[in-house]
Amino acid sequence: MRGSEMADPVQLEIPGANFSGDAYHNISHRSVDLVGIGPSGQSRRDMPERMISRRLHVRIPERGHQTIVYVLPKDQPIPPAYQNSPEVAEYFRHCEEERRRRRSDARGRLIVALGEIFPNTSLLPRQPRTIAVWHPRGPHQTEVWRWFLVDKDAPAEVKRFLHDYYIRYSGPAGLTEQDDMENWNYAHLASRGTIARRFPYCYEQGLGCAVANYESDGLRIPGKVIDITETQSSEEPMRNLYRRWAQFMEADSWDELATWRRPNSEDSQLRRTGT
Predict the structure, then answer these.
(1) At a CB cut-off of 8 Å and minimum separation 6, what does 45 contact?
(2) CATH of 2-272 given 3.30.70.3400, 3.30.450.40, 2.170.190.11, 3.90.380.10
(3) Where are the alpha helices (DSSP H) in 103-174?
């Protein structure tokens, strides 16, 4: 499926920044969670995963990329999330077993929740699995292209289930997407106000707390990491996005931007340490 959404007025940076970290706006989706239209029949589909995992904000230095990942406890299976549909639950249980079999090392405990490829592509590998690309349409408008992904070899019942789930939960007509459109519209309007133009926004949550060489029970995570399991939120991904955006605005050449090619760059140092 492919959908086109027009959000007016929304700046590119607002949806892009939200998908960078996505940690402090979920209260907006409380009504959708209470309705229970997700595949679990209750709350968020991934809530059981979130409750038992370490939740991390990860940024890739010098690239502008960032992601949110869950790290399951050692030897812990992923909790079921499709209790209302036994056939769908069985299909994804099989998919998870295959993923663990092919990735038999510690990386099998790693679940990527969502992430962003700089400057304007967002990825959600978990259901609803989607790719979003944010296209500026002038200073006050963004066109959003969303692709929703379904396994080609999935049973027909699974495809029907996901089709209905995507339509009502996410995508142009989805309830969560309507919540987000309201957030982004009002955030942009507020940003054009007198006080907002007079004072800079504060993006200091978690400032100075990111660490390199993060490790959890033998699983090493590359890049710079903030463990938000306890703190619940940080703005490390947003700072990374805006920092890279500023570099692109100020650079005189591509060589100046490709800093990872330099032997003493932060990114090169991380790769030399084996992360």
Answers:
(1) 38, 39, 81, 82, 126, 127
(2) 3.90.380.10
(3) 156-169
Residue pLDDT, tens place only, 109-163:
888 888 899 988 998 887 778 899 988 887 778 888 889 999 999 999 999 988 8
| pTM assigned to the model | 0.79
- Are 149 and 16 a contacting pair, CB within 8 Å? no
Helix (H) or strand (E) holding 115: strand 110-117
| CB 224, CB 269: distance < 8 Å | no
DSSP 8-state secondary structure symbol assigned to residue 109: G
Read off the pLDDT of residues 182-210 as tens digits, 9 standing for 90 and up. 878 888 888 888 888 888 888 888 888 89
In DSSP notation, 200-219 reads PPP--TTTT--EEEEEETTE
Both structure tokens of 39: 């595949």
